[in-house]
Amino acid sequence: MSKILITGGAGFIGSNLTEHFLGQGHQVVVLDNFATGHRHNLEQHSNNPNFMLIEGDIRNNEDCQKAVVGIDYVLHQAALGSVPRSIKDPQTSNEVNVTGFLNMLVAARDAGVKRFIYAASSSTYGDSENLPKVEDIIGKPLSPYAITKYVNELYADIFSKTYGLETIGLRYFNVFGRRQDPNGAYAAVIPLFVKKFMNYESPVINGTGDYSRDFTYIDNVIQMNERAMTTDNNEAINTVYNTAVGDRTTLNQLVGYLKEFLTEYDAEIAKVNVIHGPNRQGDIPHSLASVDKARRLLGYEPTHVIREGLQEAVKWYWENLK
Ligand SMILES: NC(=O)c1ccc[n+]([C@@H]2O[C@H](COP(=O)([O-])OP(=O)(O)OC[C@H]3O[C@@H](n4cnc5c(N)ncnc54)[C@H](O)[C@@H]3O)[C@@H](O)[C@H]2O)c1
Fold it and tell me: Hey, which of 6, 7, 13 would you mutate to test ligand 1's pocket, going by the most ligand atoms within 8 Å of its Cβ?
C-alpha cells in the first residue's frame, strides 16, 4: 500500500480521488486551504485512520514541505480553476497555479517522492484549431488560466530532465460528476445547469449552443490518475496525456440530455427553456481529444461516455441537492 498526497483533495476531482484511493486501502494525505473546496467533501473519512487532512496553502513552502513527508505519490490537483476567474484576477491565479505548483514540485523533489502526477488542462491547446487534439500540437493560450496550466507542463518537464523527478501531466477535458460544485460565480456548466433546471430556472448558454466539448466523467479521470500512478512503462512517464473520452457533445445536445435525465425525476423540468447570451471571452469553439496516447502507453479505456456519466451525475445531484 502507498502513501498518497492529494493536494486540492477537498475539491471536486481531489475528493473523488481521495475516496477512490482510500477505498483501495492506501493512505491518503490531503492538503487544501478550502479556497473552493469544502469540508463536507471529506467528512466521510474523518474516522478513517488512513486519512489525514492538512489545512494549508500551496503558496506557503512550509505547508508543502509538511505535506510531502513520507509520501510515495503526489496527485497535485490544487489550483484556482476557471478561465473567467483568471481574467478577473490573473495575479492570484498565477500565485496559486504557478508559484504554488513550483513549491509543490520543489517539495516533492526534496522529499524524494516516487512520482508527481498533476492536473494539467485542455486549455493548453489554446487557439489551435486542430481536431482531435493530439498532445504534441498546441496553440497560443487564450487566457491567464491557460498560461498557468501550460507553465505547469514546462516546469514538470524541466524537473524530470534536471532533477530526475518522475512526472506525468493529465490534461483534463471538461470533467463532470458527483460533488462538482454547482454554486458560486465560477461554477462549471453541468452542475450549474442541473441546479437551474431543478429550480425551474432557465440556464444561460453562452452563444448559439453549437460549441462542443469532450465532456469527461469523473470515473475516467480517476482511472487515468491510477494508471499514471501505477505504470511501470518507462516510455509512459515524464510526459502529458489527454484525459478525456474522445467524443464531443454540443451545448445544445448537453441540455437535451440533461432534460431527458432530469425529467425522469420531475416531469415539470421539460417545460424549462434555455436562454442564449453572448459568447464568453477565452472560449474556444470546439474541443475534442484524441486518447490514443493514453490507450497506447497507459492502457486507458474510458468506462463512461457522456450519457452514462450524466445519468449517474444527475442521480447524484437529485439525491444530494434536492
Ligand atoms: N474540472 C475540470 O473540468 C478541470 C479541467 C481541467 C483541469 N482541471 C484542474 O483539475 C484540478 C482540480 O479541479 P476541480 O474541478 O476539482 O476544482 P475545485 O475547485 O473543486 O478543486 C480545487 C481544490 O484546490 C484547493 N485549492 C485552491 N487553492 C489552493 C491553495 N492555494 N492551497 C491549497 N489548496 C488550494 C481548493 O480549495 C479546492 O479544494 C485543478 O488543478 C484544475 O485546474 C479541472
Answer: 13
Kindly tell me if the per-residue pLDDT of 283 is higher than 90.
no
Under 8 Å between Cβ of 57 and 8: no
Helices then strands, each counted (H, E), the chain: 11, 13
pLDDT exceeds 80 at position 160: yes
Number of alpha carbons in the 13 Å side-chain half-sphere of residue 273: 2
Ligand 1 centroid, distance to 34 Cα (angstroms)? 10
Reading the block at residue 104, the C-alpha cell is 509543490
Spell out the domain ranges in the chain.
3-178+218-245+290-303
Residues in the chain: 322
Contact 168, 300 (CB under 8 A): no
CATH architecture, range 3-178+218-245+290-303: 3-Layer(aba) Sandwich (3.40)
Residue 99 gets which letter from DSSP? I
0.85 exceeded by the pTM? yes
Per-position DSSP letters for 144-159, written without gaps between them: HHHHHHHHHHHHHHHH
Distance CA 135, CA 293 (A): 8
Which residues surround ligand 1 with Cβ inside 6 Å? 8, 10-14, 31-37, 57-59, 77-81, 96, 100, 119, 121, 172, 174-175, 181
Cβ neighbours for 267, distance < 8 A, ≥ 6 positions apart: none
DSSP secondary structure letters along 220-246: HHHHHHHHHHH---GGGSSEEEEES-S
The rounded distance, in Å, linking the Cα atoms of 296 and 75 is 22
What confidence tier does 107 reach under pLDDT thresholds 50, 70, 90?
very high
